[in-house]
Structures
1.
Amino acid sequence: KAQPRSHFGSSYLPAAMKKTQVRDSRTSHPSGIQSIIDDPGPLQNTEQHQKLNSLTAQVEGMAAVFEEANKAREEHRKMLEERHQDVLRRIADTRDYVEQESKRLKDTLHTFQAKFNHELANLRSDLLSDLNSMVVQIRTTISDLEGQVTGLEEALQQEKEDRITQTEEILGGIRKQVAQLTTGLEQERKIRQNREKELLKELSDAMDLLNTTLFANIVLEPLDERAHIVDDSVLALEAMLGLFDKIVTQTGAQSRRLGLDLVL
């Protein structure tokens, strides 16, 4: 693995260290510029020596700082590595758990699907069996009902024909009776009319004869005999009227009897 870069670079160096590096780069140049090795004089040597000691102390302090920074960086790197390994371990555990759960869910789904398909097939088979049984039963019932309907239609047609035949027989006899009664009634009506004409003629003749006789007797007979003649004439007239009423009554009764027979 690549080592992580340090958080301490050249930008973290002290300003004195930077100046020393610049001065060293200038004095080491072979152009004859004065360096710390030259000995210009006692005063300058003392100042340079002090600066050098200060610089050495600063360098040593920086070394300690760098060492502490390296240790901190190493500890930080180890901590990050441990965190990284922990994250990887958790990821691996999560992946294993997900795979196990996926396998378990897949097995459960497969089992449920197999059970569901089996139960669905059984249910479909049971429903088809029940449906076939119901269809057979319904067809049998329909066949029985069709047979009953056919029998009822035949019986109804036969009953209709029998009723028509019976009605024709009854009406045929009634028609014959009506024809006979109509013929008899017509004959009776003609006879009654002729008889009424005869009776009216006889009554008219009798009235004329009675009037003639009564007038002749009343005129010719004495006064005391006229009352007897009138009484006899009245009695004869009443007898004739009674006979006429009797004939009319008999004729009406016979006509009513013929009409009643016709109605029956």
2.
Amino acid sequence: MKCFSSLEIEIQRFVTSHDLKIKVMRLLCRSLEVLKMGTINYLDALKLQEKLVSDRKLGKISDTLLSLQHPPTYTLGKRRTDHNLLVSKDELQSMGAELHYTEGET
């Protein structure tokens, strides 16, 4: 691998294990895909994130960073109770905010 030739020289000098050298070089040569998505609703972003995680685990894609924001959105996690909300669901809707119940920690 020849991603960082001057850095590779330093690695050769200071890292003695061949296997470790290979691991270090692989880490240095990894790529990161950045997706600038603007404003996207919570459920669409969640579905995309789940698909990307699946594809990454299968080695189909490289590491990916999503840059996005949601319209006003509230989530309640697995220890949820509606008394955690300071306003009613109807009030949230009237303000243009979405409420989602999630399975994980939020």
